[in-house]
Amino acid sequence: MTIPHDLAGEGPAILLLHNGLCGRRMWDRQMETFAARHRVVRCDLPGFGDAPAPDGPFSFAGDALALLDELGIDRAAVVGNSLGGRVAVDLCLTAPDRVSALVLVGAGRRDWEWSEAVQQAWRDQDEAATAGDLDRAVELGLQLWLDGPGRPPGSVGGDLRARVAAMLRQTLEGELAAGDGAGPERRPEGSPADVRAATLVLVGDQDAPDMVRIADSYARDIPGARHVTMPDAAHIPSMERPEEFDRLVLGFLADVGA
Asked: Which of 8, 80, 161, 229 could cross-link to 88 by cystine, CB 3.0-4.6 Å?
């Protein structure tokens, strides 16, 4: 079954891959701004948004490729935030000829040794969710990823906080409902050093230190990668600083002819 997705615009294709907090609706703005120049695709990876959780072995990258196949898209620039960035790298390793350019935004990385601070934050969130206190679980996720650990809780408010909170709640509810049925994820061989697509590495200066270090490692390991740190942004700069994000990403894609 095709994963849930949306299409907009005409031109060179862009595939948008969401983070582990949100589903595809985190890209609402980019579905408009990117579509002025590109054919834009966004999707919900299994277990997020409107996509049911997998009930056995699965492949995020494989599902994304199957969607491109169904849509008749031979090549696409792939923009991934956090989990979506890690999946974007897997997609490059699985089918390098299908990726015209790569944009990693606060991207995760395979086999990363997470700091104790992040691991403790995840434990606290899981404990709250398991205990049925989704309000606390959501707030803990917002404080770490939307506010960022270096800013006071609630620093990012208003409609943006409400939108991310709603998506995160849906993700947590889906995880609780799915239980332990999913997995393992099938992953390709190779490493970021094998990526050959023109690559832009973006990270917010208010993101968790782990994410800043991962961005540094991608910029070091992917041949020719460009590295940009966005000021006054944490883990979701496409939502927190959308104008700057759009300028950087669209400018990069134009520059590399994607």
From this structure: 80
Within the chain, which residues score under 70 in pLDDT? 1, 180-181
Q: Which amino acid is at 236?
A: I
Predicted TM-score (pTM) of the model is 0.97
**Which long-range contacts link 127-132 to residues 24+ away (Cβ below 8 Å)?**
129/172, 129/175, 129/176, 130/176
Q: Tell me the pLDDT tens digit for each residue of 66-82.
A: 999 999 999 999 999 99
So where are the chain's domains?
A: 5-112+182-255, 116-178
Q: 86 near 107, Cβ under 8 Å?
A: yes
Closest CA to 92 of 195, 14, 19: 195
Q: How far is CA 181 from CA 29, 58, 172, in A?
A: 34, 11, 15
Residue 36 CA: distances (Å) to CA of 8, 29, 101, 128, 204? 9, 12, 18, 42, 25
**Cβ-Cβ contacts under 8 Å for 191 (sequence gap 6 or more):** 93, 221
Question: Which residues are bridge partners to 101 per DSSP?
Answer: 77, 198
For every residue of 68-134, DSSP letters joined together read: HHHHT-S-EEEEEETHHHHHHHHHHHH-GGGEEEEEEES---TT----HHHHHHHHHHHHHHHTT-H
**pLDDT at res. 179:** 72
Angstrom CA distances, 228 to 11, 13, 139, 247, stand at: 26, 23, 28, 12
Copy the structure tokens of residue 117: 């601070």
Q: Is 218 helix (H, G, I), strand (E, B) or coil?
A: helix
* Size of the chain in residues: 258
pLDDT of residue 1: 56
CATH class label, 5-112+182-255: alpha beta
